[in-house]
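tool=predict chain=A
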Amino acid sequence: MSVLHSLYGGSLALLTDLYELSMACAYFKCGMADREAAFSLSFRHCPFGGGYSIACGLEAVAEFLEAFRFEEDDVAFLRGAIGSDGKRLFDDDFLSYLRRLEFSCDVAAVPEGTLVFPREPLIRVIGPLVQ
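tool=predict ok
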């Protein structure tokens, strides 16, 4: 069991914002869910006013990505999400897609303990747009 799972219990897939899930639904509906995309993670400013930082915590990121999936409880929660128009935000086709989703992206990261600087990529993820 991963450290993250033992701290939070269950799925961590809903640790995102509604905008990201809404965009994923739009990509799904437009047939773009599996289109390849790339995302790079960086930071803007060093903590404590320093000139550099040290990369750490990458093991937790790897554990999160390996375990990433929407559990039945996650889908049930999203099934109940209602928009400002009073209608469900996510239809059953999209929710079924999320329930079957398995993380399949390629991930590259700087080695743990590397000196890193603001605005430099720490982690790069390439794979299906929805992921």
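Strands lie at 36-41, 53-54, 106-109, 115-116, 123-128. The chain has a mean pLDDT of 91.
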